[in-house]
Write a structure and sequence with these properties.
The protein has about 475 residues and is of the alpha+beta class. The chain folds into two domains: about 5-150, no CATH class; about 170-210 and about 215-225 and about 275-450 and about 470-485, LCP protein (Aminopeptidase). It has helices at about 5-30, 35-40, 40-65, 65-75, 75-105, 110-150, 245-250, 265-275, 290-300, 335-345, 350-370, 370-375, 380-385, 400-410, 435-450, 480-485; strands at about 170-180, 190-200, 205-210, 280-285, 300-305, 310, 325, 330-335, 390, 415-420, 455-460, 460-470, 480. Helix 9 (about 290-300) packs across helix 10 (about 335-345). This is LCP family protein.
Length: about 475
């Protein structure tokens, strides 16, 4: 007579099989194919394992050996589309492998409650596995959208030779503008105007800072009939350099053919390029009111405050805008609001010291914007940048600019030449001589192109020769390291 199997033993075997199935499902989430091989489906298991090994190996090789190429790919919208789709497909496939691994190992005859609980656990595992991939796909899409919003060009520049964009361009000249546009202000007046002249072969850079209060400066030939004796502005204006932007936006005849929003930066480009004797290639305008959002999205920025700076006012008790606080001297981390005042405050000294602080602030932000910080705060940074940055740099130039910026960070020289009448002989804020400004510019660029000169240092009481920039130069340039401390 046939013996009857005990129900308890059958259920115990099913539960044991379930724990084995769940364990192998987790293992298959980490290495594809393990569950299939255990279930005897060796062909499918080894195929999945081979695909997993090939994918892991390819990602490791790309991450370790092609970092520069990946940086260039990361700023190309077509590639970002491909990457987004690829990540989504990978998430779907990986989730499918995990679900299938569980289904082929799940024992039969499980009670309904246990079956539902096990299915829920596997679903949670799939969600946990796919969530980082979905986040990566979304971040990639956000990056693509941000690049398209900011780097759209303006249709006026020359066609980009993407294979070798610097072939006939030994230097790239970019105008950096810090605008004061905000909800409580009408129009835009750049508080900060700096031309970055970059050697496209080695990344050596000279920053030429112009005072916002420059007056009665010579205009380009096409505008001299309007201002033959130098720029004096329109009725009600002071005739300052930083009024040009809004003047062009208000008076379209100054930049015929340019749409609203582009007249201001293009006229400022043209006039400053004329003063320095440079062809300005592109501009970047950062709205200072939104600049603090970028700094906050970075988690703050560490700067060296060299003197006590008032926030929101000045130290003079007779003025109607008393300070609401102070930035005390010392190296410290500033949030967006305080970093903005570090760059904008001028009541503790003057415009020329403020120009130096602004360049130091830009330098500190560039040095501290490391990939880890950008990735962890990426969406906040992207949202802040879209509402803060405007430029006519086309997206096609971004891969080459990424490579160039890498050379700048790797130790190429970074020099500063502020047009400061207290430091530059022959330069005047009122009625500046254009030949003096052009000579200073030429000398500064020539000095930056010289190889580093050895300067003596002392070690253990003995003089030793070390490579250095030599500090100030005939062109009035000074290393930013010396300025910023």
């Amino acid at each position: 007579m046939r013996a009857h199997q005990r129900p308890g033993r059958s259920n115990a075997g099913s539960v044991a099989g379930l724990w084995r199935a769940l364990g192998l499902t987790v293992a298959s989430a980490l290495v594809w194919g393990i569950a299939h091989i255990w279930a005897g489906r060796r062909a499918a298991g080894f195929l999945l394992m081979g695909l997993f090994a090939a994918l892991s190996g390819a990602l490791a090789v790309l991450g370790l050996g092609f970092q520069e190429e990946l940086k260039r790919i990361a700023v190309q919208r077509t590639w970002l589309n491909v990457i987004t789709i690829g990540i989504v497909l990978l998430a779907v496939f990986w989730g499918g492998v995990v679900l299938r691994s569980y289904l082929i190992l799940r024992p039969a005859g499980l009670p309904a409650a246990i079956r539902v609980t096990a299915g829920t656990l596997v679903t949670v595992l799939v969600v946990m596995l796919c969530t980082p991939l979905v986040y990566a796909a979304n971040a990639t899409y956000v990056l693509r959208d941000t690049l398209g919003s900011i780097f759209h060009g303006d249709g006026n520049g020359p066609k980009i030779n993407t294979a070798d964009p610097w072939k006939d361009k030994p230097r790239l000249n970019v105008l950096l503008l810090g605008g004061d546009g905000g909800a409580d202000r009408s129009g835009v007046r750049p508080d900060s105007m700096t031309v970055a002249s970059i050697d496209t072969h080695n990344g050596n850079t000279v920053l030429f800072s112009l005072p916002r209060s420059l007056q009665k400066f010579p205009m380009p030939a096409r505008l001299r009939t309007r201002w033959p004796a130098g720029y004096t502005g329109y009725p009600g204006d002071q005739g300052l350099l930083n009024e040009l932007y809004q003047a062009a936006e208000t008076h379209p005849e100054l930049e015929p053919g340019q749409p609203k929003g582009q007249r201001g930066p293009h006229l400022t480009e043209e006039v400053i390029g004329n003063l320095l004797g440079l062809k300005i290639d592109y501009y970047i305008l950062v709205n200072l009111d939104g600049f603090k959002d970028i700094v906050d999205a970075m988690g703050g920025v560490v700067v060296n405050v060299t003197k006590r700076l008032p926030i929101g006012g000045d130290d003079d008790p007779h003025h109607l805008r008393p300070a609401t606080g102070y930035l005390e001297p010392g190296r410290q981390r500033l949030n967006g609001e305080k970093a903005l005042w570090f760059g904008r405050s001028r009541h503790a000294d003057d415009d020329f010291h403020r120009m130096d602080r602004q360049k130091c602030l830009l330098k500190d932000i560039a040095e501290q914007a490391n990939p880890q910080k950008i990735l962890t705060r990426f969406e906040k940074l992207a949202e802040a940048a879209k509402g803060t940055v405007d430029t006519n740099i086309p997206a096609e130039l971004l891969p080459a600019l990424v490579t160039l910026s890498g050379s700048i960070k790797k130790g190429s020289s970074l020099h500063s030449i502020p047009f400061n009448p207290y430091k530059l002989t022959g330069f005047h804020v009122y009625e500046p001589e254009i030949q003096v400004m052009r000579q200073v510019t030429r000398a500064g660029i020539a000095d930056s192109e010289k190889p580093p000169t050895p300067k003596p240092t002392t070690t253990g009481g003995k003089k030793k020769t070390a490579s250095g920039t030599g500090g100030s130069s005939a062109g009035g340039s000074t290393s930013l390291k010396d300025i910023c401390g």
